[in-house]
Amino acid sequence: MAAPAMERTDVGDGSTGRSAVQTVTMAKSLNLAMRSALESDPKVLVMGEDVGKLGGVFRVTDGLQKDFGEHRVLDTPLAESGIIGTAVGLAIRGYRPVCEIQFDGFIFPGYDQIVSQLAKLHFRSQGKVTMPVVVRVPFGGGIGAVEHHSESPESLFAHVAGVKVVACSNPADAYWMLRQAIACDDPVLFFEPKRRYYEKAELDTEAQPPPLFTSRVLRRGSAATIATYGPTVHTCLAAASAAAEEGTELEVVDLRSLSPLDLEPVFESVRRTGRLVLASEAPAESSVTSEIAARVQQECFYSLEAPVLRVTGFDVPYPPTKLEKHYLPDLDRVLDAVDRSLAF
Fold it and tell me: Where do the Transketolase-like pyrimidine-binding domain residues begin and end (predicted)?
């Protein structure tokens, strides 16, 4: 059996006439990443519902069809199974499709294609066929949307062998992680926290990014470790700043990659702090946070000074808009978990 396809590293900026350092929104950084990939490789395609003329419901693909044409940026029918199935066929023919699922809750009609075809073909073909397909998924709540528009289905896909699952949390990571995902010969589900789309930060398109499937320590601390990803990274960094005002220094780890998990930075941190709080919007049961809690208990048992605690969404369907502020992990819930951990 051939080894799994490895990620490529040829992801230079590919831009012409743009400043390397910019202050941009996450939506803009994702747009720049796709633009750069389209410029660099004629086999890269962007496809999805309303990604062309409209520029996407969040305007992430704004202007791409105008600049690259309808044969490179394709408006598709409202059929997620057809979008993914078409991308599988295009990948077999040597293309590198970047598919957009308009909202997280709409991914389930395409679930069979992802699990039964996209995830299996490299293995089924004994390494002869690669699947360089990126499936972009705006995920999470906090935007006041209706049913099916605020899901966190990442744990379902992290369980599937044959696909990679990553989640960005800031504009710089959004740009570089998407460029790296497009260059990867394995299928990548790319989760984007939609309520962070319009938050701004500095992006350097000539920086040297870390490898795609790695976690990063964003803030150093000694009292306790917080590990998180996607939309709750911002929440946890705010909680760490609030705790620091009272003399408690918290270490914050952005997981970035959910499958494969890069847990060595988490293990190293927990061995120093003795405490771990995990945070995510997804429900707690049978989740990414479940796996991390089990792995930390296995690897760091004698370093733990308190049980691993989790701050998550609740094990219920995502609530109506008026209730979502009670559902989503916030600064107070994170700090409450930290206090309970420190009390042991």
Answer: 24-199
Q: Are 170 and 237 in contact, with CB atoms under 8 Å apart? A: no
Interatomic CA distance for residues 25 and 9, integer angstroms: 25
Q: How many beta carbons lie within 10 A of that of residue 18, not counting itself? A: 11
- What pLDDT score was predicted for residue 4? 37
In degrees rounded to 5, what are phi and psi of residue 105?
Answer: -70, -10
Q: How far apart are CA 26 and CA 200, in angstroms?
A: 7
Whether residue 7 is predicted with pLDDT greater than 90 in this model: the reply is no
Catalytic residue among 149, 159, 234, 326: 149
Q: Which residues contact 287 (CB under 8 A, 6 or more apart)?
A: 155, 280, 312
Mark out the alpha helices in 69-160 (DSSP H runs): 80-92, 111-112, 121-124, 154-158
Q: Flag whether the pTM goes above 0.85.
A: yes
Token pair listed for 115: 């699990």
Structure tokens at 191: 């989760």
What does the pLDDT look like over 244-263, one tens digit per residue? 999 999 999 999 999 999 99
Q: Tokens standing for 137?
A: 């998924």
- Of 160, 159, 157, nearest to 136 by C-alpha is 157
Residue 149 a catalytic site member: yes
| 310: CB partners within 8 A, 6+ apart | 277, 278, 279, 284, 289, 293, 337
* Residues near 322 by beta carbon (within 8 Å), at least 6 away in sequence: none
